[in-house]
Structures are given as C-alpha cells and as structure tokens.
Write a structure and sequence with these properties.
By secondary structure, this protein is α/β, with parallel strands linked by helices. The protein is built from eight helices and 14 strands. The protein is globular, with a radius of gyration of 19 Å.
Length: 319
C-alpha cells in the first residue's frame, strides 16, 4: 500500500487530484500539504474528501499538514504549488516566481523522503521539473513532470473525433515543451494499428487547426471557467497509478534526457518514457526529420529558460 502527498492541496488542481488519486487501489494514505495560514481550508478539504470516500466505500486515510517533515514515507509527492496561469498569460511568465516556490519544497522533500518519486505539475512544468531535480538532489529517474501527457491526450481525443473512432483506437504522442513549441508526432500516430498517413482521409485532416486546438486548449478553459482542473487532475492520477501499479507503460512526460531523441538532450522536456515503481526512464526514439527540427527548437527554448531560472535561483541563494 502507498502514501501519496499533494503539495499545494488547497488549489483547485491539487484538491481534485487528491480525489482522483483516491480511486487508485494501491493508495491507502493521502496527505494534503498547504502553507501555514491555510489550516482551516486544509481541514475542510480533508473532511470533505473523507466524506466522499465514505460515500464511495473507499477505505483511505486522508490527513493534512503544514509541515514538510510529514512528507516522510511518501511513495509519490505531487507538486502543484505555485501561482496558476491566468487568462492571457503565458506559462513562461510564471517561471521565476514559481521557481522560488518549487526549489525549497524540492530540497526539503529530497531530505525527508529520499526514496520518493516527485511528480511536478507547477508551470512552466518543464523548467520546474529541472528545478525540482536540481534542488531535491534525487536521481533523474525519481523526478518527472506532467509535461505533454495531457497534450497527448488532447491530441488523441481530437483525432478520434475527426475519424469517428473510439479514443482507445488512437495512439499518438506530443513531445517537447508543454507550451507553444510542442511537437505532435504524426510519424508515430496510428489508428487501429494503421499508420495515420496510410489512411486516405488523412489528406483532409486539418492538421494545423488541430495543433492550434491542442496548444490553446488550456488557455480557452481558463478564459471560460477560470482554471483547468479535471483534465490535469485525471492526468496526474493516471501517472501516479502507473508508478504505483508498476505498469511499465510508455507515456509522454517531462523527464531529463541525455541523448535519447536523435542525440538531443541535457534538459527536462516532454518525451516518451517507460514508467514503473522504480521511476521514469526515457526511451530512445527515431522520428521524421521535420519533427527532429521542431523538437530541437523546443529543446533550445526550454534549455535557455531553464538556464536563466537556475542561474537566478543560484544568485538569490548566494550560491
């Protein structure tokens, strides 16, 4: 049985993620962490979740804390803390402010729970994954981000709708930045096991319209309802389940790569990775040349942003 901690549990994504994670059979303890001054809200959320578990018939212990020492013993720690994106705001606009939140959290988590796996959700997620990796001092296989997992699911859904097939028949990937420079892998997309480019209807597929829809999906949700909650929450739970169930599934998450994609690497970014109880392991892939070019551009963008943020963090801490 496993303990999962949600850092930033008073936020919308953190709260719903806790509820979604409670459906995982391997989980018997969910710890909700929030900053000091949020005790009443944490207590209320804990009581509300406890009632929902009772109504569902789920025997899960749910507790709350404002002390990171209580994170000890966690099998997975989900970091959702930080400033959420608002309408009209780019994820990169949040970089420095959220890095100042994630860095000390990751450092403490690495100290009190050295065997845990850290799942970073805070935006910009690729940069924050690098921050968490550096400051936690954990192995690269222990730290990963939500990355393009949700983008891949969004693309999968749009393709299924266009071809009028069940989403389970579509297999596709989005790699690169969780943001404007994301890269859909059409070369790795299949429907019913058939490469999408071998389907005559593919020639009529509004590719650019679909790509734009994936890129702007989060922004449109924020404009219409204030925040993205259910999509990220379920995506988080699916990754936690994959780790705790030791599933060895290949999912597209933000992970540290050396040279797995055409020799490109030394950055945390969205790539296909094998995920199990031991952690996250990026797999080597070969893709079309146009996709290689786009991925390299995405990596260079994230690498530059990551370097800038890490250097600024170093100056702020006197390192």
């Amino acid at each position: 049985m496993a303990k999962v901690t949600i850092i930033g549990a008073t936020g919308n994504v953190g709260t719903f993620a806790a509820h979604a994670i409670s459906a995982i059979p391997h989980v018997n303890h969910i710890l909700l962490y929030g900053r000091e001054g949020r005790e009443s809200l944490l207590k209320g959320i804990t009581q509300d979740l406890g009632d929902s578990f009772a109504a569902r018939g789920t025997d899960i212990r749910v507790t709350w804390t404002t002390s990171l020492d209580d994170v000890a013993g966690s099998d997975v720690v989900v970091i959702t803390a930080g400033t959420p994106r608002t309408a009209g705001q780019d994820r990169m606009d949040l970089a420095m402010g959220n890095a100042l939140v994630v860095a000390p959290l990751a450092e403490k988590i690495g100290q009190v729970a050295p065997e845990t796996k850290i799942l970073v959700v805070t935006n910009p997620v690729d940069v924050m994954t690098s921050v968490a990796l550096k400051y936690s001092k954990l192995k690269p296989t222990q730290v990963f981000g939500l990355g393009t997992h949700l983008d891949s699911m969004r693309l999968k859904s749009l393709i299924a709708a266009y071809f009028h097939v069940h989403v389970s028949e579509v297999h596709t990937r989005v790699i690169g930045e969780h943001g404007d420079s994301l890269v859909p892998l059409w070369s790795a997309t299949t429907i019913g096991g058939i490469k999408i480019s071998n389907l005559p209807e593919f020639s009529h597929l509004p590719v650019q319209e679909i790509i734009n829809a994936v890129k702007t999906s989060g922004q449109l949700i924020i404009q219409n309802k204030g925040s993205t909650v259910y999509g990220p929450g379920e995506a988080i739970a699916s990754l936690v389940r994959t780790v705790l169930s030791d599933e060895n599934r290949i999912l597209t998450v933000s992970a540290y790569i050396k040279s797995e994609v055409h020799g490109i690497g030394d950055v945390c970014i969205g790539v296909p990775a094998r995920i199990n109880r031991k952690g996250v392991f990026p797999i080597a892939i070969r893709i079309d040349e146009s996709e290689v070019i786009a991925f390299r551009e995405s990596v260079e963008k994230i690498r530059a942003s990551t370097k800038e943020v890490l250097e600024a963090l170093g100056r702020s801490s006197g390192q």
